[in-house]
Amino acid sequence: DVKVTQSSRYLVKRTGEKVFLECVQDMDHENMFWYRQDPGLGLRLIYFSYDVKMKEKGDIPEGYSVSREKKERFSLILESASTNQTSMYLCASGSGNQPQHFGDGTRLSIL
Amino acid sequence: AQSVTQLGSHVSVSEGALVLLRCNYSSSVPPYLFWYVQYPNQGLQLLLKYTSAATLVKGINGFEAEFKKSETSFHLTKPSAHMSDAAEYFCAVSEVTGGGNKLTFGTGTQLKVEL
């Protein structure tokens, strides 16, 4: 089975902090994705990556950056956390047109 | 740009009753379509996918969906609801861009199953 592992299930940070969310997949997928999930809004794509060191903006990239130094790892960075970034963050990986596989999510609270 | 509309943010059914969750999409090319389920405090699990083969797609846990091009719909059904089906369901359409597929999700439908 594909395993997508997110480093934290719950995280509490303060406004202005730099926050790192880590995601690792074990299936050698070339594609990796970061979404945020908010009630009534579904999942919205923040950033995605098709290869190591490659990244593309999704629908809501403002306030975020990403890093993909190794194929299996995709990090989401909140440069200066704000309260409106309190949300559930989901990482996914996939290959070609095959379905994406999701991690269990990180529930991030910014105080 | 592609989009997905899920009618009804909350659906309530009785145990044993038919489940029908609606999904309409817009796409400029033949779409790849997916249904995912999310149980509380978990990530998304794939229920089923449509990839231009048979229009009636069977998935896990007794769910199925029918692709209707003329109606741009991909509604999810299950003949008899079970308490364990209570969860949030997301429809998604795939857009091929760059080296892979980018998913656009609907806003989700919360399914409640009552005794």
Could you explain the architecture of this structure?
- The complex is a heterodimer of chains A (111) and B (115).
- By secondary structure, chain A is mainly β.
- In chain A, 0% of the residues lie in helices and 54% in strands.
- Chain A has strands spanning 4-6, 10-13, 19-25, 31-38, 42-49, 56-57, 64-70, 73-78, 87-94, 101-102, 106-110.
- In chain A, a hairpin with a 6-residue loop joins strand 5 and strand 6 (56-57).
- Chain A starts with a strand and ends with a strand.
- Chain B is mainly beta and 115 residues long.
- Chain B has strands at 3-5, 10-14, 19-21, 24-26, 32-38, 44-50, 56-58, 64-68, 73-78, 87-97, 100-105, 109-114.
- In chain B, strands 2, 5, 6, 10, 11 and 12 form a 6-stranded mixed beta sheet that branches.
- Chain B contains no helices and 12 strands.
- Chains A and B meet through strand 4, strand 5, strand 9 and strand 10 of A and strand 5, strand 6, strand 10 and strand 11 of B.
What's this entry about, in short?
The complex is a heterodimer of chains A (about 110) and B (about 120). In chain A, about 0% of the residues lie in helices and about 55% in strands. Chain A has strands spanning about 5, 10-15, 20-25, 30-40, 40-50, 55, 65-70, 75-80, 85-95, 100, 105-110.
| Overall pLDDT score of chain B | 91
Oligomer: heterodimer
What is the count of β-strands of chain B? Answer: 12
Largest interface between protein chains, with number of residues from each side: A-B, 31 and 26 residues
Residue share in helix of chain A: under 10%
* Number of DSSP E strands of chain A: 11
Q: Roughly how much helix do the residues of chain B carry, as a percent range?
A: under 10%
- What is the straight-line distance between the termini of chain B? 41 Å
How many helices of chain B? 0
